[in-house]
Amino acid sequence: MADDRPWLAAYPEGVPADITVPEKPLTANLDAAVARFPDRVALDFLGAATTYRQLGDQVARAAGALHELGVRAGDRVALVLPNCPQHVVAFYAVLRLGAIVVEHNPLYTKDELAHQLADHGARVAIVWQKVASLVDATRDRTGVETIVAVDLPAALPLVKRLALRLPVPAARKTRADMTGPAPASALDWEKLIARAAPVADGVPGPSVDDTAMLQYTGGTTGTPKGAILSHRNLAANAEQNRFWPPGLRDGGETFYAVLPMFHVYGVTLCLTTAITIGATLVLLPRFDPGMVLDAAKRRPPTFFPGVPPMYDRLGAEMRKRGVDLSSARYAISGAMALPPDTVDRWEKLTGGLLIEGYGMTETSPITIGNPMSKNRRAGSIGVPFPSTRVRLTDPEDPSVEVPRGEPGELLIQGPQVFSGYWNLPEETARVLLPGGWIRTGDVAVMSEDGYLTIVDRIKELIITGGFNVYPSEVEEVLRGHADVADAAVVGMPGKDGGEQVVAVVVPVEGTQPDPETLRAWTRERLAGYKAPRRIVIVPELPRSMIGKVLRRQVRENLLADGS
């Protein structure tokens, strides 16, 4: 039977149409890397190096310590950590016991943390010392019994730890940014690991079909839901990722962890894919262009995952310093549209490839990407990954496929697709269809040769005067104006009970664009019903933890302001 995947012709040589779906849990990938590359540097944290042999030992000891604390298979363990070596160790130690990792953003408020902690019911939380008191304050609403506090400076090189003790303002500020007082009841991570014995061989580990993670997502509504990701889901996505860039070398790559590892994008590229291929993982506690370039002097990157604003800021810093990142052969961008200008600037500065990909928490997350070759196509999210199939359907009836070239809801099937939401069977039934297909909530168009372009999100579609308006189309036109740095377009209540198109615009520094002039600009380039009825000028747009504009928050802000 002929293959129904026209996009396979775009695959570079060496990228398979299908992968062999792993039959081993994620922990087996770490064990294999330790065995194959024991003396290779696994982690670099601001100059402090950890080899794979040392990482394997630390994970075994951490698993032994957690087992002594009563953690067992199926238990949820909360991680509230920035990027640091302790994060990697804790992640794999929890998995080694067959327990379930639940990642949390350490910048969340007490209420945001309390909601998630109560939902999954973790009894043990491994927490950045700076926010340990915040987690401690949730105990009256959650099941947290034990808090293990992680001191970030403990992972620094000795000279940097000593420098933090200097009685100078810069050292005090850095120390305050990295650490803070932990509650008296909290256990100390470093002391706990130092006195622990490695987990006993007789303690059973996970199977490939066990749940590895609960990753919280807002999905198409604002209510956080825990996506259930199995070892098989995450291991399959790591396998897909390792084949996508042609010539990726086991034991020969250096990945930069500038994406937060509490986000599923950072999990799959830094915590799973990098470890699976025995790469060196350069960990940065936060994204800072100067910090990246300083690290590059020590360990030049070969693979750089990020989001568009990171590439823009890093490019500006490279030009300022007169340096490049010519070692970075591959870079993949996600979470938001990748502007062609960003690609051009990055590729001129590095000589490597920067491509756009697509994913969602519920798919581990990556499902679609531009080929890592001259076949990449600007403005498109690319083609489905190996062992991944897609359909475009009527948003009102997912059983009806739309003709090629017409917009439809994107449905995805593959080994990386999750099994459902934690304790939310009705929500699961809304998005998971028979045959393992997931409704993404995104509207896309497919070209004849299989390339996909996202038009917009179904939930953010604006209906005005009976016509559909896709916000991204209007935003793209606005960004084309010389005085507009960024824009977000939302639907606001109209006098007739329908919606009206409203744009919120961030001006280029030093400019003062006139809203009426901008409206005229859009009317010249868009059908009348698509042009914004109002334009509001703001200094900045609300963004997610990885820089994605939050249209829902934009709309709420406008409503709160009475705009």
TrEMBL record:
Enzyme class, broadest EC rank: ligase
Record carries keyword Transcription: no
PROSITE patterns xrefs: AMP_BINDING (PS00455)
Entry EC number(s): 6.2.1.3
GO molecular function, one term: long-chain fatty acid-CoA ligase activity
TM segment ranges: 262-284
Coiled coil: none
Pfam families in the record: AMP-binding, AMP-binding_C
Keywords: Ligase, Membrane, Transmembrane, Transmembrane helix
Domain AMP-binding enzyme C-terminal stretches: 473-548
Domain AMP-dependent synthetase/ligase: from-to ranges: 31-422
Name of the protein: Long-chain acyl-CoA synthetase
Organism: Catenuloplanes niger
